Structures are given as C-alpha cells and as structure tokens.
Amino acid sequence: MDKIKILANDGIDDSGKKILEEAGFVVITDTKSALELPSFINQQNIQVLLVRSATKVRKELIDECASLKIIGRGGVGMDNIDVAYAKEKGIEVINTPAASSQSVAELVFAHLFSCVRFLHQSNVAMHHVENCHFNELKKSYSKGIELRGKTLGIIGFGRIGQSLASYALGCGMKVLAYDPFVEKGVIKIAIEEQTPIEITIKTKSFDEVLTTSDFISLHVPMPNNGQPIIGEPEIKKMKKGIILINASRGGIVDEIALLNAIHSNHIYAAALDVFNNEPEPSLHILSNKNISLSPHIGASTIEAQERIGAELAEKIIAFFSK
Ligand code: NAD
Questions:
Q1: Is 252 found in the same domain as 111?
Q2: How many whole angstroms separate alpha carbon 5 and alpha carbon 2?
Q3: Cβ neighbours of residue 75 closer than 8 Å, sequence gap 6 or more
Q4: Of 280, 287, 291, nearest to 253 (Cα)?
Q5: What is the pLDDT of residue 2?
Q6: Which of 148, 172, 250, 275 is the least crowded, having the fewest Cβ atoms under 10 Å away?
C-alpha cells in the first residue's frame, strides 16, 4: 500500500517529522505558493496538509483538493483556515492550542522585566557606542522598580493567562484575573521533581482588575465585533503609571488610545508582541521608546515548536489508526 503523504507547507519541527516518518508517513516540507498548492496536493495525493499562520486554507483550496483528510495548524489561531467549511466536507481539522502557552507567558515576563528596568531603552542607547554617555545613562535608568509584591492583572484567564499566573506567583507577585467565562484557575507551581503546589485564583470583575493592577497583560481572543477591549475609557480607570502588555492579538488594544496615554504619562510603559496591520505596524508605535517591542514571536520557541510537532504527529497517527 502507498504511504500516506503529509505536506508541512510552513515546516514542521524535526522531532515531529521523525515521529511521523517512523510511523510510516512521508513528510514533505517544501513550501508551495498559494498558486502551486492545489496542483501539488493533487499530483502527490497529499492527505494531510500542515500549516502555521502563513499558508491560507480557504474554501477554494478545500474544494480543489479532494484527497485531503486532515488540515493541521501548528499553533492556536485558525483564522487562516476555513474550519467550518473543511469540517462540512468531512475533513478533520486539528491544532495544538496548549503547546505554546508557556512560551507566550515567558515572553510577557521578558517584556515586563525589560520595562521595569528600562532594558528596552538602555540596549538601544548603549548600542550607540560612539555616543554612549555612560554616566548619563546610568542616571536615567537608575529608578527601576521590582516586580515582587506588585499586582499583575491578567485579562483572559485561559491557557496563556493561567500559565502567566504561575510565573507571576513564582516571582512573588499578586495576581488578579478577569475572565467572563472562567470562575477560577488552579495554578500549579512545580519545583523540580516535587509534587506541584496548587494555588486557586478566583477571577474578579473587569473593573477591579483595571483599577487595582500595577501591570496588566492581555490574553483574550479577538472579540467578534472586532472592537478593542482596551480603549480610552478602560485606560482611564487604570492606575497612573501602569505598564500594559499585549501579546494576544493586534487590535485588542486601541493603539491611538495607548499612544495618547503614554504621551500623558498615564501609561508608564507598554509592551507589544502583536500589532494592528501586521506585518507593517504603525510608525508611531514602532518609534515610541516607551514601548518594548517584539515581532509576534510569543509562540516561537524551540521547545514550543518541538511540542507542536510532537502533538500534531500524535494526532495524525491516532486519526489513521482508527
Ligand atoms: P484561551 O482560549 O485558552 O484563553 C482565552 C481566554 O479569554 C478564555 O478563557 C476566554 O474565556 C477569555 N475571554 C474571552 N473574551 C474575553 C474578554 N472579553 N475579557 C476577558 N477574557 C475573555 O486562549 P489562549 O491560548 O490563552 O490564547 C490567548 C490569546 O493569545 C489568543 O488571542 C491567541 O490568539 C493569542 N496568542 C498569541 C500568541 C503570540 O505569538 N503572541 C501565541 C499564541 C496565542
């Protein structure tokens, strides 16, 4: 019998590829353009199409490729796949929602540590070696603050929000969480091989999180109405001097309101991993030195890619073993 062929059009981690090959699948990791994809899938009789965020799997492609049995997304968001249509056509759609929660949580903490000690600014300033006024910089960046004892507000207490809470608790922070659909989270703190300590955090009202947090991090999906969750009215309720972090989706924070609030010093600093109009974020955002920036890399760690590859492989093997 012919081997089942998988096209990982946006790549797959070597460990996942190896698991699949050892289970008897053929894994092709060439990247085909949107134009080339349908004919390649048909010629090669591809049964599994794996994508990340780059490849779009729309209705037209699904209609053209009768051989497809599984569409797999390495990661969480399925905005690039017509999921309902694929399911209607009897195609299994899989993703790996939990594989990158820890990676996003760690990136949020990298930004948070950076903001409270001005690392995003001092790195840029000190790289100007010709013009590096060491003592002036030392003075400018000498009023950092500590995280321990401060309150982290988490908006959206799902997988990433709860993972973030474990890092915050580990740093000795207080955690306040808001999520209209989650009553509480049981946060596990694992210390080496010991049995994890479990800490239950009950969610609070939106207003309580907005008004009493020292730092706020957003971990929500894009609302169906496409409107920001944090705009001017919400920022007004926050403590003066807040640090705001968005590593969820561009558009969840109103960027104009954010810039205005930084300008008026209501927001002390912000950190963004996601932006309106990616991959061309606003120049006002990119040039603001009070914003710590990263180019949508929350899920992009080597460990997350390994977990994604392994989880996709397990799900594909399970599907064809039925
Ligand atoms: P999740 O579904 O596990 O959690 C999201 C939570 O938000 C849910 O518990 C839901 O009840 C809650 N929620 C929905 N609407 C809300 C609202 N208006 N206010 C407060 N809470 C609300 O999802 P997750 O895996 O934790 O991912 C969270 C976000 O992070 C998603 O937008 C996802 O796309 C994004 N993400 C970003 C990256 C990155 O690279 N930066 C990587 C992975 C995920």
A1: yes
A2: 9
A3: 52, 53, 95, 96, 99, 100, 299, 308
A4: 291
A5: 85
A6: 148
How far apart are the CA of 233 and the centre of ligand 1, in A? 22
Query: Is the Cβ atom of 104 under 6 angstroms away from ligand 1?
Result: yes
Residue 74 tokens read as: 């390495």
The region, left, alpha or beta by phi > 0 then psi within -120 to 50, assigned to residue 296 is left
For the question of residue 127 being annotated catalytic, the response is: no
Closest C-alpha to ligand 1, atom 11: 181
Known catalytic membership, residue 303 = no
The whole-number pLDDT of residue 306 equals: 95
CA 320–ligand 1 middle distance (angstroms): 31
Candidate from 234, 248, 273, 294 with most ligand 1 atoms within 8 A of CB, to mutate: 248
- Those residues with Cβ within 8 angstroms of residue 260's Cβ, 6 or more apart along the chain or in another chain: 232
The answer to whether residues 48 and 121 belong to one domain is no
* Statement to judge: residues 46 and 149 lie in one domain: no
**Residues 266 and 157 both lie in one domain:** yes
**Are residues 168 and 105 part of one domain?**
yes
Determine the distance separating the centroid of ligand 1 and the alpha carbon of 209, expressed in angstroms: 17
Structural domain count of the chain: 2
- 124 lies in the same domain as 187: yes
Q: Are 65 and 140 within one domain?
A: no
* Domain at 229, CATH number: 3.40.50.720
Contacts of 288 (CB under 8 A, 6+ apart): 259, 262
Q: Which among 220, 245, 274, 301 is the best mutation to test ligand 1's pocket, defined by most ligand atoms within 8 Å of the CB?
A: 220
Q: Which among 79, 104, 297 is the best mutation to test ligand 1's pocket, defined by most ligand atoms within 8 Å of the CB?
A: 104
- Whole-prediction pTM: 0.91
Domain of residue 246, residue span:
101-293
Q: Is 249 in the pocket of ligand 1 (CB under 6 A)?
A: yes
Average pLDDT across each block of 10 residues of the chain; the chain has 322 residues. List them in order: 93 95 97 97 98 95 97 92 97 95 97 98 90 90 97 98 97 98 96 91 98 98 94 98 97 98 98 96 98 96 96 96 89
